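Supplementary notes (optional reading)

For those who missed the lab, this is the record we used. Protein: alpha-1,2-Mannosidase. Length: 162 residues.
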Amino acid sequence: EMASGRVMFPYYRSLQSFWPGLQALSGDVAGGRVLFERFFGVWRRLGFVPEAYNVETNAPQPGLGQYPLRPELAESAFYLYRATGDDTYRMAGQDMLASLNRHARVECGYAAVENVTTKVLRDHMDSYFLAETCKYLYLIFSPGHWVLNGSFAFSTEGHPLP
């Protein structure tokens, strides 16, 4: 609240997870590392990042405990790994893959997580899971891939642009 300084919305929203990667791209690698560690702490605790996490109660915000297979945290891990070469980000990617395979893998692919606490799934997989989440996780483990030769930039949807 602007008059009192009281926090009105004490939430970490999953879409904010792109920010540490953007910090790394803009040269604020130290800031990106700190923020990534905080965001990834939620993933470690719950196995996924919910749509909204209440930082005062340290729990998913009621009604917003879904994980629709979003790419932003994997994207930040990718950019921080590229900026630092620190295996911390590869290990984070490994942890993300393990959670996805353990809890979201189904016979014909992957399913969105309806509740990060109970791990109940929803019969849905948005295309950004393949276009972005899987791509960034793959590239964390493929540092010599041709798309990383410096001739490409990724669009906001993870498409390589020359």
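If you only remember one thing from this example: DSSP finds five helices and nine strands in the chain.
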